[in-house]
Every structure is written in C-alpha cells, then in structure tokens.
Amino acid sequence: MKLVVMLPAFNEGESIANVVAGIPRKLNGIGSAEILIVDDGSVDDTVEQARAAGADKVVSHGTNQGLGIAFRNGIEAALSMGADVIVTMDADGQFDSADIPRLIEPIINNQADFVTASRFHKQYKAKMPWIKGLGNRIFTRIISYLLGQKFSDTQCGFRAYSRQAALRLNTFGRFTYTQEVFIDLVNKGMRVQEVAVHVEQRQKGKSRIVKNWFNYGTRAMAIIIRSFRDYKPLRFFGTIGLITLIPGIAVGLSLLIYWAITGRTSPFTSLLYLVVILVVMGLLFIVLALIADMIGRQRRINEEILYHLKIRRYMDEDVK
After folding, report:
1. Contact residues for 243 (Cβ-Cβ < 8 A; gap 6+)
2. Distance CA 231, CA 171 (A)
3. Is 96 within 8 Å of 197 (Cβ atoms)?
4. Is the Cβ–Cβ distance between 210 and 185 less than 8 Å?
5. Strand 192-196 relative to strand 2-9, pairing
6. Beta bridge partners of 95
7. Which letter does DSSP use for residue 160 in this model?
8. CA-CA-CA-CA torsion for 74, 79, 81, 82, nearest 10 degrees?
9. pLDDT, position 121
10. What is the rounded (10 degree) CA torsion for 24, 25, 26, 27?
C-alpha cells in the first residue's frame, strides 16, 4: 500500500523544509511513502527548500491559482503517483506529522474512506483567536445540518483519503476546498471519521487564505451554497418556492375571507398584487426545483462515468 503526503504551498520557504523532513516514511500498513508538493506560484524559495528536504515530486503552477485548484491538481498528481492513501496537510508547520499514522489507520483498517483531523474534538480543544473559532463553529454547524451528521471541525486541512474517495472526489472551488469536500464525499456515501489532533500556531508568516475574515466567510459561504444547490436541488429550490408560495397563499386566503365577510377588499386591495407576485414566484421556483432535480440526476450519471474514466486512466498509468 502506497501513501502520498500532499502539501499545497504558497510562499512557505521559511517552514516547508522542517515539515517535509518531519514526515515519517515508515508506517504500519504502508509499503512506501512519498511526499508531493503543489507549489501554487510561490515567488520565494519554497520549491528549492522542499526538494532539498527530500520531497519526491513537485507540481508547480506558473501563477497563484488558489488553494482549491492546488488541492484538485494535487489529488490528481497523487493518484498518478499510484497512491492508495493520500494525506493532505499544510506546509506552515501547524500540524504534527506524528499524527499521520492515527489519521490513516481507519483507512488502512477499512473503517473509513475519508478521515479528517479535528481541532475541536472532545479529547482536545485548540486555542485560536475568538473570531476564527466562532467562524469555524458556524461553518461546522452549517455543514453538519446540511449533511445530517454531526462534525466538530469541517475547516481543517489535515486529512486522509482512500484511493476510492480520491477517485470519487470532484470539487470546483478556486478559493478553498475544505467545506466542499465534506459535501461531495458525504453525498456520495463515503464513510467519514474525525481524529483529534494537536495544532500549533503558524511557525512563521501569516495565513495565505484567511487574510480578511469577512471576505473568507462570504467566499466560503458561496461555495457551500453552490454545493448544496448542486447536490440537493429539489430541496434548495423547493424550499425557496415554499417560502414564497405559502405566504402568498396565506395572504390570499385572508383577503378572500375578508371579502366574503365584508363584500369588499379595500383597504387591502393593493395586497392582491403582492399575492399574485408571491404565488407566481413560488410556483416558478417549484417548477425550477423539479427541472434542477432532473439535471441533478444527469450529473450523478456523468460523475459515475467520470469515476470509471479515472479508474482506467490511473490504472494505465500504474501499468506504465
């Protein structure tokens, strides 16, 4: 069984060498382990430092394209390397590579397809700025509610994927990927486990992703909304339709009862326009929900075809 540890990196020259050097090469249940660096357009010596520290492969972007794209390209590169298990971790030294064996154990034992480190598990509570902790709790509760499962940390980048999960995975976000991965894999029936880990503050520098909390929150929320729309279109558009249709019907019935009792609609005549708008909008959204649900079925067929194409592609590369 082959393990590939993938590190997306952007201008992490000050810390990446220590991270790469600390990654264990010999682990129980793993025949070989390799380190993959996805350089997202770094302008410092990230690549040189990583190679000098022992990285086995480096995939470089000519320009900074975003963590979401770096992650997606990294998964593809890891599969091309013949990975049976893929671990992703940050290149800034926040995570302890000694936790990798615990992270991959459920996958090796066929107990999970996707294992994510948790900084807020019962066994451990990470210390972080209150605004970051609040944002993490909010997003985690949103994801847990949408998926019908309880998670404690859906933003952590320290994760392990089985080959099956990596082949099934399809993400589209450019800015980040952490929330979208949960939505994608859970909706595809992948088994998810959380493992408590200890986290250090960044060794050097500042976060490349969270430069502004409001900006991060709005962009991450947009990714969640689009993912929910794509995987649950009937529920997404149907809910909007009912939110507009039900008040329209309620107001309309109230006006009808008022007219039946008094024989007139004044002084509420203008509400008739509101009733028409709400009812028409509600019906349109419900029709849209049905159409989107049919499109969603086609998407699932296309993803199944893509999954089998990936299997053939990476099997051919393994043979080569």
Report:
1. 282
2. 12
3. yes
4. no
5. unpaired
6. 199
7. E
8. 160
9. 67
10. 60
Do residues 84 and 318 make contact, with C-beta atoms less than 8 angstroms apart?
Answer: no
Tell whether the torsion through CA atoms of 168, 162, 69 and 130 is positive or negative: positive
d(CA 154, CA 214): 18
Radius of gyration of the chain, Cα coordinates, nearest whole angstrom = 24
Provide the CA 284 distance to its chain's centre, in angstroms: 30
Domain spans of the chain, in order of start: 2-231, 233-319
**How far, in Å, are 44, 161, 196, 198, 241 from residue 87 at the CA level?**
25, 6, 15, 16, 41
What's the token pair of residue 237? 């558009």
- Comparing C-alpha atoms, which of 100, 189, 203 is closest to residue 149? 189
Please name which of 95, 112, 120 lies closest in space to residue 162, comparing C-alpha atoms: 112
- CA-to-CA distance for 312 and 306, rounded, in angstroms? 10
- Answer yes or no: CATH 3.90.550.10 is held by domain 2-231: yes
Distance CA 302, CA 216 (A): 31
Strand partners, 274: none
Residues 30 and 107: their CA atoms lie apart, in Å, by 11
Q: How many residues does the chain have?
A: 320
Characterize the bridge pairing of strands 85-88 and 114-118.
Answer: unpaired
pLDDT reading at 61 higher than 60:
yes
The mean pLDDT value for 231-258 works out to 94
Q: Report which of residues 220 and 243 the model is more confident about.
A: 243
pTM for the whole thing? 0.84
Angle (nearest 5°) at CA 158 between 18 and 110: 120
- Cross-strand partners of 85: 3, 162
- Please name which of 123, 188, 175 lies closest in space to residue 152, comparing C-alpha atoms: 123
